[in-house]
Batch of 2 targets.
Target 1
Amino acid sequence: MIKTCTFFCAFTLLIGASIARSADRPNVLMIAIDDLNDWVEPLGGHPDVQTPHMKKLAQRGLTFTNAHCQAPLCNPSRTSLMTGRRPTSTGVYGLSPWIRTVPELKNLVTMPQYFQKAGYRTLIGGKIYHGGNGRRKNSQAECDVWGPNAQVGAKPDKKIIPPTPGGNHPLMDWGTFDHRDEDKGDWKVASWAVDEIGKMSDEKPFFLSVGFFLPHVPCYATQKWFDLYPNETLTMPPIVKGDRDDTPESSWYIHWDLPEPRQSWLEANDQSKPLVRAYLASISFVDSQVGRVIDALEASPYADNTIVVLWSDHGYHLGEKLISGKNTLWTHSTRVPLIFAGPGIPSSKKCNQPAELLDLYPTLSELVGLAAPDDGEGLSLLPQINAPTTPRDRPAICTHNAGNHSVCDTRWRYIVYADGAEELYDRDADPNELQNLVAPGKNRDAFEETIANLKKWLPKNEAPLAPGSAHRILEKRDDGFYWQEKKIDPAAAVK
Ligand SMILES: [Ca+2]
Ligand SMILES: [Ca+2]
């Protein structure tokens, strides 16, 4: 492998101590988890949750406790992370399109491609891109090795929960039934990663991306994971009746008509606790699969020269704000686990500075001694990795369809919708974001300066919908809001 003096010197400075293959760049193990909110031990989002492997990873690394997705939905979030560009720059706001089908985006260099060009062997298994994206046409252009795609694996004969509104979507289910952990899709993805780690050669450094599907619905797990969360002692999240009384009507439009049931349906069907329990059980199961992969890494020759990063693509509501699911601009949807560990990364540290998932691209690049791509929109987190109290000016911005954004700094969350309606939360005093400080009738003037400071970070230009945009698309047109091309009738809101 060719190494330049520039790289070698920078890298030596960066990590100090020698590593197993000191002449080479570090490897990268990137673990992605789907729809995982802050209910993990390193973030403390749920008092009952048991995630020993993520806890252990956090103990040997750095956890960003104020990290947020760029879009609260799979495809736009993952597109942003993997390309280093905001949804407002690509126009990818929905579950479609895949970037390679869009003339203006098809040549974007994704993170694995960037590392591949720098001499890395790149592998992708499980859910890294949404759905089958990247695997269909010209799949070899995306990475060197494709592993198994994400799949549910074992399923019950029929849905466990009662038929859900909006067409009884087959994925909208949760509970336990007779099956084995080994029969689950995520088990197979972890097994693939374990095998690949065992087969790595020293010829090239590797960039191994491993994407887990749970706790995405259907939240199926075997009984032993449910046993960790007995019904009698289960802690329910803060579900506050009337919490939406101070949020604008347009806050309903961004998750207007979805398969994920409202809290009202969960309560009417006695599914509130079963969903929380199944989600927690699924998290603990997926944590065990994270453990299998990290254990394999630690038993390998690459234990000491591999950067591990773990993230989720967005959060998930379990009744908070009176809904289940994603597609909102509140903390339940935007806050994500983001943990780094490995050479050059301090252990047992937390950083509360705002971080964005699109920062991964420049951060991982710099962590291995590559220059960050000069056309990306992320900011390297290296200053915070080197000194976790280093302040960061830029807040974290999350977008759900054009015109709807939230801006989060170390204290505040400001939300603006496409019709100009606003929310402001003091997350120090109100971490669950219950009190909208700028609801009608409140004294907005008192927060004018705070809002102005946050608002200045909003994207200045917003790309129109990329060709082929579909699924969970909201548009503000001259005569009102449209959800999936159909005009929204505010009176028809299902709350
Ligand atoms: Ca997702
Ligand atoms: Ca409220």
Target 2
Amino acid sequence: MYTANEARYAGMQYRRCGNSGVMLPCLALGLWHNFGAITPFETQQALLRTAFDNGITHFDLANNYGPPYGEAERNFGIHMERDFRPYRDELFISTKAGYDMWPGPYGDHGSRKYLISSIDQSLKRMKLDYVDLFYHHRPDPDTPIEETMGALDQIVRSGKALYVGLSNYSAEQAKAAVKELKRLGTPCLIHQPRYSMLDRWIENGLTDVLREEKVGCIAFAPLANGLLTGKYLEGIPAESRMAKDGRYLKPAALTDEKLGKIRALKGIAEERGQKLHHLALQWVLRDPVVSTALIGASRPEQITDNLSILSAPPLTEAELKRIEAILNQ
Ligand SMILES: NC(=O)c1ccc[n+]([C@@H]2O[C@H](COP(=O)([O-])OP(=O)(O)OC[C@H]3O[C@@H](n4cnc5c(N)ncnc54)[C@H](OP(=O)(O)O)[C@@H]3O)[C@@H](O)[C@H]2O)c1
């Protein structure tokens, strides 16, 4: 029987998501890795409990997180039943559809047919009546934006999600989608892009659109899937994601250019008396348009370790300039 830590809200900082009523924790936990069939149930349980016990109220899922597809939602449903049912109203739970999920023409992309079927499946797997946030996971240039956004609007109006969001949309695509959602009367709460020191694409227009439209932003993979911990500087550790689950993170990512930058950034972190991943998380959160860094974790200690940024001194102008110089090399 799980009883949440009574002091769970003491240390976390919450930031407003765009101009909505929603406050999100600075760090949120994603279930992309370590919640499928290959991770022991006890590990998953410890990750979720540690997160919630420390004020991480936001868990992020998608229909196809696993492996196999659907398994992270299915496992989350079991954790929901066992641990989190009494805390449902303290949690902000998201899921998504947009990538391949089931065979045939209706299990991928952005049709109304796919999105409505997918949210119904997700709710069953997660044993939820509704999710707090439902995303279109990636843009679909072949489906009219009116159809995809119309489906998101319908999902909210039918009570299956409280808010909707976009993920991986470019600045231009996001602008069009946000406009259509506004017209429909279901505002876009948030955009979820990849963002880290090693991938700054959102700075070329997307963050301007989000600021103008007052849409929130949650940065996924702020540690570049673990590269920004420095753990790959001397090879590939046996306990790392690259060694254990190389579906997405491959040795080809370890280029000399990237490793050189990581080494130099680690030097700055050490001068600040912290670890590279702390610097990387603080850096992502330096722009107030980003409410949240959406991390993954393979061990509960990683979550508590990352939480130490909440009491770290902010980055100074001089440090930011030095980081900028390294990233621009
Ligand atoms: N919308 C999208 O298209 C999309 C795409 C990708 C991800 N996401 C979301 O973003 C979430 C996070 O992605 P991610 O897991 O790649 O994020 P990440 O935070 O960049 O990487 C997480 C990994 O870094 C390592 N790590 C984290 N903290 C550490 C610490 N203190 N010390 C040592 N290692 C540490 C762990 O890897 P080890 O296994 O090596 O320990 C952990 O699994 C996903 O779960 C998902 O919710 C969304």
